[in-house]
Amino acid sequence: LEVDDLRADGWSATAAASWRGLAQLAGLAGSGPPVRCILERSLQRLAAITVERRAGGLATGSRLLSFHATSDGLRVALNPSCSLVARGVPLPSGRTRRYVSLSLDERYSLADPAARVAHAWLRAWSSSKKAERKISLDRLMSNVWSDDCRRSTRGRRRTRLLAAIEAIKALPGWSLERGGSLCVLARSAAGA
């Protein structure tokens, strides 16, 4: 999709697409009502996703995207954070904003929601050029559950996190070893 409507402040962008063009982008063969129905259901699911971001003590939240469908096409708007990433707008520090591809097959093979969050976070965190990354269980736990909790809840969360690590470790291309309170993550080329 080509961005064709950009607000002056650079925080929002929309793109127009035909149903046929969107089907091709999505890798769907064919056309007509069945394909359009699949695309509309996919867009509705994506429009239901809330993106939350916390940085520097500030929080923002919005839907991943919104769309307006017509008989001959549609207009899609990305949320502000995603539009900045998609357009390659650098951070104030000059560093490049980035995104990470996430295997939905891997994600949905994990039954526990905590395992799904840990999987997504570890996938994004492991996308650097380093062959191996180390993280403490406490830090990983704070990235899966961002709120403070009582000691008893913390124990249950730790148990769930350890089960999540075992489930993620069983996925093809993942090497996740635990030694004491530390996890060592290495991803093979197949899992990268």
DSSP helix fraction = 25-40%
For the sheet with most strands, the description reads: 4 strands, antiparallel
Spans of at least 5 consecutive residues with low confidence: none
Give the overall form: globular
**What is the rounded Rg?**
19 Å
Strand order, biggest sheet?
A: 1-2-6-5
Residue fraction in strands: 25-35%
Order of helices and strands: EEHHEEEEHHHEHHEE
Descriptive notes:
- The protein is an alpha+beta fold.
- It contains seven helices and nine strands.
- It has helices spanning 19-25, 33-47, 80-86, 104-109, 113-125, 137-144, 151-169, and strands at 3-6, 13-18, 50-55, 58-63, 65-69, 73-78, 132-136, 174-179, 182-187.
- A four-stranded antiparallel β-sheet has the order 1-2-6-5. It has a three-stranded antiparallel β-sheet with strand order 7-9-8.
- α5 (113-125) packs across α7.
- The radius of gyration is 19 Å and the shape is globular.
What are the defining features of this structure?
alpha+beta, 4-stranded antiparallel β-sheet, 39% helix, 26% strand, globular
